[in-house]
Amino acid sequence: MSNVSKQRLLLATRNAHKTCEVREILGEGFEVEDLTARPDLPDVEETGATFEENARLKALAASPHYDGWVVADDSGLEIDALDGAPGVRSARFAGEDATMEQNRALLAEKMRGVTEGRRGRFRCMLALAKDGAVVRIFSGVVEGTIATEERGSGGFGYDPLFVPEGGDRTFAEMSAGEKHSLSHRGRALAGLAEYLRAR
Questions:
Q1: pLDDT 10s digits, 29-67
Q2: What is the number of structural domains in the chain?
Q3: In the chain, where does DSSP find H-type helix?
Q4: Which residues does the annotation mark as catalytic?
């Protein structure tokens, strides 16, 4: 497919893992750039109480500076035994500057000894903005359980600890294609792609 017919998107993130996933999921019909190419735009403080609020904040911060579609993702892991934590603080679970290794270690510590209630879900909210306004919100959820130990080397974030419902492998033990077909982000982006292709 030629570049002329591609939909151009600005993904409001500097997370290279997230950008890679979005490009893989959306495929050849979309040209996705992210904020690494826009050092002039400031990072947005994620002060929202929900994934949707944070996605809106990020989309609205970037949209006035970009001539076209802006997509902002906020997503994370909700665990029933932890009353929905880490939730919107998934990337900062072990502290503001925590690495994902530290976040996973804290989660494993909090879940130690928990035999019932290991259920949880990954949730993704996407805000699509244009001309400084949010146009649509897309969502995706995948239910699953929290593994008792990290398994696999693929994916990123909490993937080595999350086993999607109906399976016995973590996201990190799956190929990228397998994960994308099941994941919260894959489901949300499917709705986004359908919407944009109809424009």
A1: 999 999 998 888 888 989 999 999 999 999 999 999 999
A2: 1
A3: 16-26, 51-62, 100-111, 176-182, 184-197
A4: 74
